[in-house]
Every structure is written in structure tokens, then in C-alpha cells.
Amino acid sequence: MHIYKVGGAVRDRLLGRPVSDIDWLVVGASVEEMLAKGYRPVGADFPVFLHPKTGEEYALARTERKSGRGYGGFTFHASPDVTLEEDLIRRDLTINAMAEDEAGQVHDPYQGARDLDQRLLRHVSPAFAEDPLRVLRVARFAARYAPLGFRVADETLELMRQISASGELQALTAERSWKEIERALMEAQPQVFFQVLHACAALRELLPELDSAPQALAALEQAAAHHKPLHVRWACLLHQLPPASIKTVNQRLKAPRECQELALLTGECLVQADQALQLPAMSLLALLQKFDVYRRPQRFEDFLAACEMVALGNCKAGYPQGEYLRGAAAAARAVDVNPLVQAGLTGQALGEALKAQRLKALEAYRHC
């Protein structure tokens, strides 16, 4: 029985990057032996166990073969006879197919260290093409390691094109696709993820609405550079699409509600925000009301952040509309409802009076 660190922990240590999660691989052990040592089974599809003291996951070495369509269509075989090399060859990229033993020695049967040095994302074996999810994973790794100069190897990109042409990407569930997209959006250079998907013709399969929207990537790049949260990045990515298309993308990928809301509002209101300095008070009020700036001020702030990133993506030096709209929102929120209530106004009458007071405040703000 031999235990190895595998995958990302070895890769990132060799790159000098922080190692957060460690994947452990057990070679030469049976299920019975693991149970006898106190490991607790948790794997549904193949034997994975929790360490009796640390609670970390330990997986038995296994092989796999394609048995159906999609990323889940595989049959796994785990036994003490499966070698380290046989387990590593089923992995996606050579840089993820290295192992480190308990003495600290790196086992690298597929030249992952060489590809790290050459900054290449290269597949381990032709079996790469059997799993459509790997198209998204490779694109995500490209986004993560782009700051270090990594690129997808030509032969791997060709396999990714073959997967795209095969129709296998359609077998990915919305939940699995979104998980990869979400993780990619939060990388340092998320635009690279979509550039790689475009290069291998996967974008037209997964997000055809974005296949010809290069300016959206400039806004997304700015959002990442300014460390914006996920929902702002998603809104930046979709900002060029018509609202109907934004709804379609949101529903198809089952994006989180916060992402859906901000993306749709940005698509609907970006032009108004860009014209803010010329808007009459009534239009300003309507924009503020749409965002419910009185009860949900942060949503409006997130919208303005998305607008600012779009402007930067368009090579504009600044976005004065942002501060102007923040001031308008503050002026509208400063209107005190209490005098109207004390005057005995209720219901629709109160609403109309409050609207009139806010319009008056916005008129004053516009001319100050």
C-alpha cells in the first residue's frame, strides 16, 4: 500500500503557488484493507475514503472506460492491481498527472514537469476526447495560468475541436456547465476561458449568444482586474446581449438568482446609465425605482460597477455617470416620508406625494 499526493497539489507546488487542497491516491490497497485501517467510505461511483484522523479524502487507484454519452458515461475499476501509471493516464492534462510519494519524490510518467517548464496545457492520452467536460476544464486552466504564460497545446486544442464537433458538449448538464463557468469567471483572466472556447468552436455550442461579442470580454477583463464579484462579472459578460437573450442564457445555464437579476438589469438599463447626465428628473426617478434603491442600494451599486467596467473595456478614461447616479440615488433616498405620514397621507396618496417630493429633490440635484 502506497500513498501519493496527486494532481493540483503537486502541480502548484512545482509552480511555486500556494497549495490549498490536497488529493490523496492510494495504490496497492483493497476496500477491505482501507476499512480495516479505519478509513470511512464516502464514494458513490468509485472507492473514496475519509482518513480516520484528518477527515481528508483518499481515493483508491482506478482505471476507467467509456460506457455512455457525456462526462458521466464512464465505468470505473479499482483494485490493488491498478498501478500508479494506470491511474495517472486517465487524467486530463500532463501537469495534473504527477504524483509525489511519502518521501517527497515526484513521479512524472507523462512529462508534466516538462510541460510546466514550457508553459503548455497538454492532454495525457487520446482518452481525453472521451470526456466533454474536459473542454471547459482546460479552458478554465488556461484562464487561471494565463498570467504565467501558459497556452493550450495545438494537439490538445485539436482534440477539443473534435469534441465540440461531436455533439458531446450537449450532454453536459446546466449545473455542471455553470460550475465550470462560475469558477472560470473568478480566475485572474476569465476572458481567456471564453477565448479558448471560441478557438475550439465550443462557445457556439455552449454560449452561441457570445460567439461574436468580443467587446464583452474586454468588460469582463476589466471586472477581473478590479476584483469585482461574480455577479458583476457575469453582468459584464452579457451586457451586449438583448434582454431576451440574457434571459435565455440565464435560464439555460441556471445561473444563480443574483447573477440573473444583475445581468438582466444591466442589459436593460446600461444605455440609460450612459445617458444619465442628460436624463430628465422623471427618467432618473424611473431608473432608480427600477433598482429599488431605497431597499436594495447595493444592487444599484453593483450595476454602476458593471457600467464602469464596460466603459473601461471601451477604453474610456472614466465614467462620470457613476458618481452622478450615486448622487441622484442619495438625493432620492434623503427624502423623508415622515412629514407626509404625519400629514395624514396613506396608500396611493402617500405614494404620489412621495414621488413628487423625490422628483423635486432630483430636479434640485440636476441643477446644483
UniProtKB/TrEMBL annotation:
Q: Where does CTP bind?
A: G8, R11, R91, R137, R140
Residues engaged in binding ATP: G8, R11, R91, R137, R140
Entries under CDD domains matching the protein = NT_ClassII-CCAase (cd05398)
**GO MF annotations for this entry?**
transferase activity
Provide this UniProt record's keywords sorted from A to Z. Answer: ATP-binding, Magnesium, Metal-binding, Nucleotide-binding, Nucleotidyltransferase, RNA repair, RNA-binding, Transferase, tRNA processing
Mention any Pfam family matching this sequence.
Answer: PolyA_pol_RNAbd
Residues involved in Mg(2+) binding: D21, D23
Which residue range or ranges hold the tRNA nucleotidyltransferase/poly(A) polymerase RNA and SrmB- binding domain?
Answer: 149-212
Q: Give the catalytic activity.
A: a tRNA with a 3' CCA end + 2 CTP + ATP = a tRNA with a 3' CCACCA end + 3 diphosphate; a tRNA precursor + 2 CTP + ATP = a tRNA with a 3' CCA end + 3 diphosphate
User: Has the keyword Magnesium been applied to this entry?
Assistant: yes
Which residue numbers delimit the Poly A polymerase head domain? 4-122
Enzyme Commission code: 2.7.7.72
* Cofactor(s) in the UniProt record: Mg(2+)
The family this protein is said to belong to: Belongs to the tRNA nucleotidyltransferase/poly(A) polymerase family. Bacterial CCA-adding enzyme type 2 subfamily.
* Chain's role: Catalyzes the addition and repair of the essential 3'-terminal CCA sequence in tRNAs without using a nucleic acid template. Adds these three nucleotides in the order of C, C, and A to the tRNA nucleotide-73, using CTP and ATP as substrates and producing inorganic pyrophosphate. tRNA 3'-terminal CCA addition is required both for tRNA processing and repair. Also involved in tRNA surveillance by mediating tandem CCA addition to generate a CCACCA at the 3' terminus of unstable tRNAs. While stable tRNAs receive only 3'-terminal CCA, unstable tRNAs are marked with CCACCA and rapidly degraded.
Additional remark text:
A single active site specifically recognizes both ATP and CTP and is responsible for their addition.
> Can you name this protein?
CCA-adding enzyme
Q: Which organism is it from?
A: Pseudomonas juntendi
